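To whoever is on call:

I kicked off a structure prediction for a single chain this morning and the downstream step that reads the tokens threw a length-mismatch warning. I double-checked the sequence; it's 394 residues and nothing unusual in it as far as I can see. Pasting both halves so you can look.
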Amino acid sequence: MSTLASHRKSRSRTGMRANTPAVGFTTAALASVTLLSTQSATAAPAEPKPSVEEVQKKVDDLYRQAGTATQQYNKAKEATDTQRKSVERVLDDVAKSADKVNEARRALGTYAAAQYRAGAVGPTAALMFADSPESYFEQTQLMSRLTDRQQEAVEDFQKEQRSAAQQRAKATKSLETLTESQTSLKEGKQKVQNKLAAARSLLSELTAEEKARLAELERKKEQEARRKAEAKAKEEAAERKRQEEARQEEAPATGGTDTGTDTGADTGTGSGATDGTYAAKAEKVLAFARAQIGKPYVWGATGPDSYDCSGLTAAAWKAAGVQLPRTTWDQVKVGTRVATADLLPGDLVFFYDDISHVGIYKGDGKMIHAPKPGANVREESIYYMPIYGSVRPA
């Protein structure tokens, strides 16, 4: 009995030892759950939703960055198109060089065959088989001339081979450059798409009330831009008046009339303002631009179904017979600079410090332009954006 009791007691102690790790594991697990719950409760809260003002600023920045990136893309695409045409010309030269090499090779083959036929019979035998000594000497002179021509053919063949090798090397380099440009172009395209996607994402999260608030902020922004532009125009007018008065004071009395004529030309408003030819061209420009109203803005587009800002201005002036460069950065360098106060219909108005946008002035402080992604070609105040400057293209 004692043995049996001892045995039972031992089993009881063993059971306690077996249960001890399980209790420890459960305690650890509970502690972990408690710790995780505490961490979740004290974790940093989600970032607050941006205000309408913050969304407006962010979207404006993204659209401006996209506009700049679009001009970079346009410039790169223009360069790539030029490179592609250059490569096509080089490849055409390679093909022509190959044809010349083949022609030289055929000439060599002809001379080699003639030499082989003549070389099969020795001079003595040729003389014996000749119809007459005169015939033999005529054949000898002919072979001598053939030898000279063969040498020329060899030289021509070597020359064409060298030329072909140079053309192939040039083609290889041009293709490498084109490939690099195409890669850069692809990266530029992705850069624009990313910025536009980010802007669309921000706008899509706005409620109807927030969108109404955003529209109100846009109107206030236009009013502020108008105020600044008008102040700038007054400053420009005052400066021109001051310069005019200074020139009149410095000019001798007998030269006053001539000075006045020169001043009219210097301000850039003389011949341009009274030139009927410019007015006729501007009328064609605006007629074309009006016909595009309602068509969508698509970055990189030059028509006829969609446009970006500089694509529209280039197409409109092309309708008037004037070829403009592709980008805003190059278009601003064309023609004559004019002050905002001196704008005429047809003039190009450029915006922002980075000159990333352009519109066609139509009069009464309004322009026709391709605004931004998601918008159509439309008429709008030139004071909607900060004005960089204006030019009269022709």
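Update from on-call: the warning came from a stale cache, not from the record. Cleared it. Sanity check on the structure: The CA atoms of residues 272 and 278 lie 7 Å apart.
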